[in-house]
Write a structure and sequence with these properties.
Blueprint: E1 12-17, H1 21-32, E2 37-43, H2 46-56, E3 60-63, H3 72-82, E4 87-92, H4 97-106, E5 110-113, H5 118-129, H6 137-148, H7 163-173, H8 178-185, H9 189-203, H10 208-217
Parallel strand pairs: 1-2, 1-3, 3-4, 4-5
Helix pairs in contact: 2-3, 3-4, 4-6, 7-9, 7-10, 8-9
Length: 227
């Protein structure tokens, strides 16, 4: 374990790996604005990520999956083998079952898609630094499918809803406020509001009650038992 890992107010030292320059620079800027996080370096591909981990020994690597020379899954596997104290949080646009399961099998501690907000990313890095796991809902679904022996991807959601939007819709049906949804999913209230606006637009709902009715009708949630 790196020195200071057990301290409650430690600084989390991060290496960012993403082959898209704009995304990589944006992540570095975002992370540098977060208290308690220091970006040590950034890599444009998996091979460079491995080299930078060797050089800087960070606490966490924020890792894209699809990169040249060596992809994120192979880089994760190499880093975890050579530096078991370095944790990996995957941040990617690719949330298919194979990518999720391969990344977790390679040793990734967390898995987020790139619609994650700053609060969610910070929470995932903090969790990884203390050997805890934060997974996007799509990753949870893939793990449940694998555990149950289900083969193939989950059935598509209706009307173009994303996994995250379906998760927000379920929490709306449970009666949670925007603030409570934000706390539950480690999102900012603004991100939750954006998801709800997308849900209304896709489902044709004019308010939360209509959205909940839609969720029951499409069997996204189960009606309460009469027993």
């Amino acid at each position: 374990m790196h020195p200071g890992m057990s301290e409650p107010n430690r600084t989390i030292r991060v290496v960012v790996a993403d082959d898209q320059t704009a995304v990589r620079d944006g992540l570095v800027m975002l992370l540098e604005l977060m208290p308690g996080i220091t970006v040590l370096a950034s890599a444009a591909d998996g091979e460079e990520a491995i080299e930078l981990v060797e050089e800087h020994e960070p606490d966490v690597v924020l890792m894209d999956l699809r990169m040249p020379r060596r992809d994120g899954i192979e880089a994760t596997r190499c880093i975890r083998a050579a530096h078991p104290d370095v944790e990996i949080v995957v941040l990617t646009t690719h949330a298919d079952d194979a990518s999720i399961l391969d990344a977790l099998a390679a040793g990734a501690r967390g898995f987020l898609t790139k619609d994650a907000g700053r609060v969610e990313i910070a929470r995932a890095l903090e969790a990884a630094a203390t050997r805890q796991t934060v997974l996007d809902p799509a990753a949870h679904e893939a793990l449940l499918a694998a555990a149950s022996g289900r083969r193939g991807p989950a059935p598509p959601l209706p009307d173009g809803l994303t996994v995250r939007e379906a998760e927000v819709l379920r929490l709306i049906a449970e009666g949670l406020s925007n603030q409570n949804i934000a706390r539950t999913l480690f999102l900012s209230p603004a991100t939750v509001k954006s998801h709800i606006n997308h849900i209304f637009a896709k489902t044709g709902a004019k308010d939360r009650a209509q959205a909940v009715s839609y969720a029951y009708r499409e069997r996204l949630i189960q009606p309460p038992s009469n027993q």
